[in-house]
Amino acid sequence: MNKIDSAGHSIHFETQLAPLTDIIKSGKYSKIFVFADGNTSQLCLPLFQELLGDFQAFDLIETDPGEENKNIDFCIGIWKTLLDFEADRKCLMINLGGGVITDMGGFVASTYKRGIDFINIPTTLLAQVDASVGGKTGIDIDNVKNMVGAFTLPQAVFIESGFLKTLPKRELLSGFAEMIKHGLIVDQDYYKMLKKSDYKKISSDAIYRSVEIKNKVVTEDPHEKGIRKILNYGHTIGHAVETYSLIHDKNPLTHGEAIAIGMVCEAYLSSNNNNLSHDELIDISNYILTTYPKYTIKEDSFTDLLAFMKSDKKNENGQIMFSLLSSIGTCSINCSVTENEIKESLSYYNIINKNIAND
Amino acid sequence: MNKIDSAGHSIHFETQLAPLTDIIKSGKYSKIFVFADGNTSQLCLPLFQELLGDFQAFDLIETDPGEENKNIDFCIGIWKTLLDFEADRKCLMINLGGGVITDMGGFVASTYKRGIDFINIPTTLLAQVDASVGGKTGIDIDNVKNMVGAFTLPQAVFIESGFLKTLPKRELLSGFAEMIKHGLIVDQDYYKMLKKSDYKKISSDAIYRSVEIKNKVVTEDPHEKGIRKILNYGHTIGHAVETYSLIHDKNPLTHGEAIAIGMVCEAYLSSNNNNLSHDELIDISNYILTTYPKYTIKEDSFTDLLAFMKSDKKNENGQIMFSLLSSIGTCSINCSVTENEIKESLSYYNIINKNIAND
Lengths: 359, 359
Hints:
Two copies of one chain form a homodimer.
Chain A: E1 3-6, E2 9-13, H1 18-25, E3 32-37, H2 38-43, H3 45-52, E4 59-63, H4 72-84, E5 92-97, H5 99-111, E6 117-122, H6 125-131, E7 136-141, E8 144-151, E9 156-159, H7 169-186, H8 188-196, H9 204-220, H10 235-248, H11 255-273, H12 278-291, H13 302-310, E10 321-327, E11 330-336, H14 339-358
Parallel strand pairs in A: 2-9, 3-4, 3-5, 5-6, 6-9
Antiparallel strand pairs in A: 1-2, 7-8, 10-11
Helix pairs in contact in A: 6-7, 6-9, 7-8, 7-9, 7-11, 10-11, 10-13, 11-12, 11-14, 12-14
Keywords (chains A, B): Cobalt, Lyase, Metal-binding, NAD, Nucleotide-binding, Zinc
GO molecular function (chains A, B): 3-dehydroquinate synthase activity; metal ion binding; nucleotide binding
Domain 3-dehydroquinate synthase N-terminal (chains A, B): 63-172
């Protein structure tokens, strides 16, 4: 159980980076770059170097941490840095960090000189269970998430729980939301197992199971024409809330916190429009609201949130499209919902939030 | 003889855009965008609209003409325009113009929301015989050509000689250089035929033959790992001269004029390093120097030119790599050449230029 085969590459688990050392030592690459942010270069690079052992001949490209820097200006900076380093098409880029680093590093690599090889070493729980599989790379434009990007596969992915030790609890919780989603959309037993577990002590087995689920879905539909859209459960509303929070809140929601809100709202829509039972709606709502901090979606943000949803990549012909549950463990794609229903679901989150607080 | 099948799409010749009308009428697309520059929207759009007939429901995205605008700032502008138009993943972008439009339009389309469909209608001879095949898209960064881009195939390509009627002679000559190259690298008979022809009256058959040659090469090696590199003949030095001229000359060289110079220099290198006969070197030099205007490569530009060559995408391990002829119609890849030899070849161009002028 130390490898999952994905399209054209492998995802390695808990190998202490041994296969990476082999790849580097093969001499296939003219130069090695490690792309990291200020946080990961401080917290994760030492472990990376320790695991690599003798081999230390790489150049470090460092960027500022945070989603707000996953933009085209930083991209241009990295392209120019590679050019300054005289990086040719046979160089390798190792992305060491969270989703911002793997998304942006993957995009930079897949477009520099029309594409150089890259390897992802996700160092956050979120990046390990979500960004690590599926070949999505991207950057934000005008605060619209992943508005520009490509589908490009890394040469390999390495998942090492050692990197998670440096992670604040809030970041663990952020990744945990995607794991809950994996249970909700395809695996009721996994969801039940997660409910019994402690997000602060995630097992390697649970991470493996999440990667396995995501890998199965994206392998079936690499370019998101159909079934892959189930992975967007919680994300249509969640992304909008995340974008709004990033612009307006002093201490913005993490991705997972926003997706957790989105999953409650979209469970409500699932119950209204896709036959999710009332009991399961309450089960999901309760579990998420007891696990994640409370948030209030302001009434006067509803119009902005709808505007963000309208620019969602999943939409077709101007219709906001949802992936909705029909039961815990089963998800349907391409569900259309009215704007009024969306507003209702936001109010549901606000109200049930208060109810639980009053319990 | 009205279609060439390329990887996953067709190149249509002289069809009066009939298959395009069918594609649009199929209703597969949520919205149609036509991407053009100030020149092509004035000179080519009327013919485009005339050929399309009834169907006129598209939005025009216009950019400034010229290679100097094939940059990331204009890209960002187009991405944002698509966003403003609420373009979803099911929209279609039709690139109507020369290589700048098809290169940049293709890159924008292949990265907007991780990829929308696009169709190329090259309206210059250069774009028809060169940019139309092979799936290369790209933009320049810091005046370094196509430093960022992707390999992405269009849905279809339409080649209509009607568009060439608006083209200045200098632009015809620019495209003609690539046709000469096609003859030089793989087809001696085609080269001889071109020598007897008049570049101002290019036949549809010749354009077809050039596209056929290029298509055969890129189909065999889509990602430029091997044989495709023969298409770079004349381009290692040619690109450097083009970049230098773009920065320093009041009236910069066209792409083809620069490639013509590159082909003479690289014929010299071919004769020195790859067994091209002296007679063939003289044949190529004479033909190009009688067809293209004379240019002087200034001695004090040699250092800059070498620096540009060092950042060429084809290089490996810091070595400047050439594709060199062994005879007219046969080309070898991955030839390395010393800096002194490169300088000699530049001087050869300058000297033989003068000799012919003195004839």
